[in-house]
Amino acid sequence: MITVTTVKEMQQITENLKQQGKKIGFVPTMGFLHEGHMSLVNKSVEQSDVTVMSIFVNPLQFGPGEDFDRYPRDIDRDKKLAEESGVDILFNPVVKELYPAEPSVTVKAVTRSDVLCGASRPGHFDGVVTVLSILFNIVSPDKSFFGQKDAQQAAIVDGLVKSLHFSTEIITVETVREEDGLAKSSRNVYLNDKERKEAPAIYQALKNSSNIYIKSGKERAVEMFKKHISSLNGELDYIEILTYPELQEPKDSDHRLIAAAAVRFERARLIDNIIFTTEEV
Amino acid sequence: MITVTTVKEMQQITENLKQQGKKIGFVPTMGFLHEGHMSLVNKSVEQSDVTVMSIFVNPLQFGPGEDFDRYPRDIDRDKKLAEESGVDILFNPVVKELYPAEPSVTVKAVTRSDVLCGASRPGHFDGVVTVLSILFNIVSPDKSFFGQKDAQQAAIVDGLVKSLHFSTEIITVETVREEDGLAKSSRNVYLNDKERKEAPAIYQALKNSSNIYIKSGKERAVEMFKKHISSLNGELDYIEILTYPELQEPKDSDHRLIAAAAVRFERARLIDNIIFTTEEV
């Protein structure tokens, strides 16, 4: 594995790979890697000639008072994990490389962004689509791999690529979970023991609620989710059931849906979701 | 010259050219070609292996009540001129090809866009940077050629490429003028005889004002411009003197400036500009 830190070197490598006809798989991350990221790398290695991973904690997608400064970082451990999992090129630029000056042009998620996590994080997804546009331009991936855990992000990235005609294909990979069902996340390290024991209830409650939705509709499903979560120390940020990937209020004719929730614990805000269908396909 | 109308075919051609190591020059236009466009093609032919021209009247950069529907179009004449001037590939998609649905993600010019033409055309430059991002993604040009006549556009495109790290180099080409000094423009066909005789005064007044600026400062330069233009039937939209390419109010320490103006005639709004320095370099 080679580590690249400058835009210029990364672009030269990309251009050479293209000229050789190599297919580039891309796994963009903010580092502090866990098995969720590794599952993205596995898919990329299966489907590509060369796998590029980026590690870049993107200041543009953190709001004021959010956890940019204390977002967990461990680049030495990350490098080891990336190499072991089959990454060929690690792109790890400093902030000034991607943003040498205040951007005079940015990218804006105009739909799918004002619900779920977007409702409480204004501008977050604008930061996500801006940095992904930059990374797509530098890495020129044939395929890019995203986790289903960040379902809203996956839906918005789908819109980014279709709207701006990036030539990368978006592959969404199933959420990797702990044995007790908790979705893997870099932020899980901030849970204390009690919270860690409570956290799998989010996934359980989502599963129950999607079943209740099918039988009894949205109001009852949301109510049961809230009841299930109310016994935890964590505080419910949102529970929503929407169409996927459009993230609209479901009508009777909509059958592909997402149940998504966010719960705030003392030092970590956890998200999870289930995508389900309301009839046999 | 071949004509391409679909995104898919254009992307395949681009990918093949890249694999062959060919350098792509790109001239994006809205058609109704004139010598200004031809001068961009000439530069591209000089500096590239393959020249791609796009002709696409972009609805996103026209505001409500602007001239999208009656923007002049003559594709047969354009094809002839493009081929004669050395274009290898003409990309001429319909609106539904670039915008198959309402875009869920767009690009936004956050600086340099609220002065000059941007002041009276809110959202115009957002439409410009969105369609250019799409075209850059489809054409993957090594160099892209823009006219200095659209100086604010050139400044914003410079910001687009630097902010989002597009790998294309922006080449700005000097304004082509009629013998009497009027800048070539697709909209000149809408001038009546009297207006056509008056229109070169815009360039004359810009030249005078830049000289007056150097001797006597901005206030006097703007005043003289207004006086010069007041005798015309055309109505002054704006006259501004700003730094270039940042488009900020000039301070004593700023020496690279632009004097830019827009004048509304009955059926055409004309723009022109001069870039000048306030001291010997």
Automatic annotation (TrEMBL), chains A, B:
It is found in: Cytoplasm. One of its GO terms (biological process) is pantothenate biosynthetic process. ATP binds at residues 30-37, 147-150, 176, 184-187. Pathway: Cofactor biosynthesis; (R)-pantothenate biosynthesis; (R)-pantothenate from (R)-pantoate and beta-alanine: step 1/1. One of its GO terms (cellular component) is cytosol. The active site is at H37 (proton donor). GO terms for molecular function: ATP binding; pantoate-beta-alanine ligase activity. CDD domains: PanC (cd00560). Its EC number is 6.3.2.1. It catalyses: (R)-pantoate + beta-alanine + ATP = (R)-pantothenate + AMP + diphosphate + H(+). Gene3D superfamilies: HUPs (3.40.50.620), Pantoate-beta-alanine ligase, C-terminal domain (3.30.1300.10). (R)-pantoate binds at Q61, Q153. Beta-alanine binds at Q61. Pfam families: Pantoate_ligase. Keywords: ATP-binding, Cytoplasm, Ligase, Nucleotide-binding, Pantothenate biosynthesis. Catalyzes the condensation of pantoate with beta-alanine in an ATP-dependent reaction via a pantoyl-adenylate intermediate. HAMAP family: PanC. Belongs to the pantothenate synthetase family. The reaction proceeds by a bi uni uni bi ping pong mechanism. Homodimer. This is Pantothenate synthetase. It comes from Jeotgalibacillus salarius.
